[in-house]
């Protein structure tokens, strides 16, 4: 990396319509904050970009000086990929515009937009696409890495709905890709993360989704979890695509949606989203709602945009987080026992264990049609360590996550890229599996110097000898 001079910095500042923030700026500490407070990095330059031209200027500046680029969209990566210590942060947060074309069922979304920007805009037309379950999640990171959400079993992953994109490549070019213009790059963007450039505009396919869905929570005591999870497993075996569910095992959070009498008690919750006919949904869910001894049942018609914000209070910006994740098959009795055992050992009142039900439309996409790696999994489990550093000890929370992950490892059938944390190059390669060689070839074409390396990195220098061993 070349040494930065005052003249260099001034040159980049003059080229931007947006702002260039340096460590001398009083706004610097705030500008370098991301969602995960466990991440503490000090980038020499933060370019708050106003448009695609700004992005091109920042990327060209960095590449010309041998500096890497970290792209910040929503800043919601648990691994802190929107920050670096040695390069230029391309901050897209000022670029949040959403333009909906209801006739084409297409949303044009700028690279810094959050799902809280997208959902109200699309729902105004009775449309939606699969978005994150926390409204402050960035569209870019979620979409490029896969994108699980309440609608995924009906509408596919967020990445499955990416039909076109504008991006700035490592050499500063602004290119548009779709099924006709560089379809191989579109393939790579659909699951390959931020490896190939900075996406400044996403074209997302929309689906008819009534603004009111049948949604809410069923909450049971954790002591009932083995029986409840077995009953749940039997129900979802024949679930239609309209049903999206997330299990969540944890100490009950102190949020407004849950009565105070339950706060802090060990529970298993089933978060429900039925996006089809409500009467059919009520009938399908009845056997589960009438089973056992639920301590809370809030399932009722509610606006989809309200559902999309329902979990926001459990994912506070600035708290500290450490994750691991495993994709697995059916919810066997053995897996249920592992989950319940480790939830009983939970080390923080804020930590959680969401288990996402996959399948449906996700599994009907041919595996080679996108770079996303786990089409055949039934579930993804996220061991979600969450704590406040002033009150808790990091090491024991991290140890709980890692122990849990090791216990689940024998049952793994894949990994979800967006839930990787510190697994390193081997973890990234494992997540992509047999798609790795194709992704490396694309990376070598688009970014041979690995300018975009603050991501779940696909190293263009991966040796051909190793590639042949994996073939």
TrEMBL record:
<protein>
    <submittedName>
        <fullName>FAD-binding oxidoreductase</fullName>
    </submittedName>
</protein>
<dbReference type="InterPro" id="IPR012951">
    <property type="entry name" value="BBE"/>
</dbReference>
<dbReference type="Pfam" id="PF08031">
    <property type="entry name" value="BBE"/>
</dbReference>
<keyword id="KW-0560">Oxidoreductase</keyword>
<dbReference type="InterPro" id="IPR016169">
    <property type="entry name" value="FAD-bd_PCMH_sub2"/>
</dbReference>
<dbReference type="InterPro" id="IPR036318">
    <property type="entry name" value="FAD-bd_PCMH-like_sf"/>
</dbReference>
<dbReference type="Pfam" id="PF01565">
    <property type="entry name" value="FAD_binding_4"/>
</dbReference>
<dbReference type="InterPro" id="IPR006094">
    <property type="entry name" value="Oxid_FAD_bind_N"/>
</dbReference>
<comment type="similarity">
    <text>Belongs to the oxygen-dependent FAD-linked oxidoreductase family.</text>
</comment>
<dbReference type="InterPro" id="IPR050416">
    <property type="entry name" value="FAD-linked_Oxidoreductase"/>
</dbReference>
<dbReference type="InterPro" id="IPR016166">
    <property type="entry name" value="FAD-bd_PCMH"/>
</dbReference>
<keyword id="KW-0274">FAD</keyword>
<feature type="domain" description="FAD-binding PCMH-type">
    <location>
        <begin position="39"/>
        <end position="209"/>
    </location>
</feature>
<dbReference type="InterPro" id="IPR016167">
    <property type="entry name" value="FAD-bd_PCMH_sub1"/>
</dbReference>
<dbReference type="InterPro" id="IPR006093">
    <property type="entry name" value="Oxy_OxRdtase_FAD_BS"/>
</dbReference>
<keyword id="KW-0285">Flavoprotein</keyword>
